Structure formats: C-alpha cells, structure tokens
Amino acid sequence: MDERKRDSMIAYLRHRMEEFGIKPEDLAAVLASEPVAEKNARYRSATGDSWDGQGEMPQWLKQAISAGQSIDHFELSAPPAPTLQPKKRVDWKNDPFAGSPLARSNEH
After folding, report:
1. What phi and psi values does residue 22 have, to the nearest 5 degrees?
2. Cα 58 to chain center, whole Å?
3. Which residues does the chain have with pLDDT short of 50?
4. C-alpha–C-alpha distance, residues 68 and 50, integer Å
5. H/E run at residue 7
6. How far apart are CA 74 and CA 61, in angstroms?
C-alpha cells in the first residue's frame, strides 16, 4: 500500500472512530484482550474460526472433515522467510556503448 493510500485510510478510520466515540485506548484494549488461542491458532476456517490443535476438535472442523475436506486445508503455515538476494552490480566503466544511442535504445 502506498503512503498516500495508507494516510487516507488512517484519516478515514480516525473520522469514523470520532463519529462513533471510539478512543484509541478503547481499540488498544480490545486488541490486547484477544484470546491467546487466536494468536496461537494452528487451523483456521474461511469464516475466521480458529483452533490451536489442543483439546477437542471444534464442530466447524469436524463438519468440514466429515464432508470430505482434508484437515491440512485449514492448517496455517508460517510464511516462508524472504531470502533477499543481493542485486548484481554491473560495472559500466568498461561498457563500450555507454552514452551511445545504442545504450539508450532500451530506455522507455
């Protein structure tokens, strides 16, 4: 999301919070009180129901499995850590076409 869209969204949310009398502290309190199970979820449905894999399997997951869906379909996986490849440095010092019309032909 670019910076302008982000700023616009923040302004919109602040306006709506003022309109409904919601203070930033109220929002922070709600976010802090989220159940730990949600944060440690191992399985999640399309509707946002989650299960940490401990205890009895929830009804939504039992129903999906009995309907033929694999439990693996609902398993959350940690996103792979991006591996940043260093950009290849190009040495233009010895480029025989540097500055010529041929070098600029690919620029758009």
Report:
1. -95, 125
2. 26
3. 37, 108
4. 19
5. helix 3-20
6. 8
Joined tokens for residue 10: 């923040």
What distance, in Å, lies between the first and last C-alpha atoms of the chain? Answer: 25
CA 28 to chain centre: 20
| One-character DSSP codes across 40-86 | T-SEE-TTS-EE-S-SSPPHHHHHHHHTT--GGGGB--PPPPP-PPP
What are the tokens at 62? 């039992």
Name the amino acid, one letter, at 33: S
CATH class of residue range 35-78? few secondary structures
Res 94: pLDDT = 76
pTM above 0.70, yes or no: no
Q: Where are the domains of the chain?
A: 1-33, 35-78
Amino acid identity at 25: E
Q: Determine the Cα–Cα distance for residues 66 and 13; give it in Å rounded to an integer.
A: 41
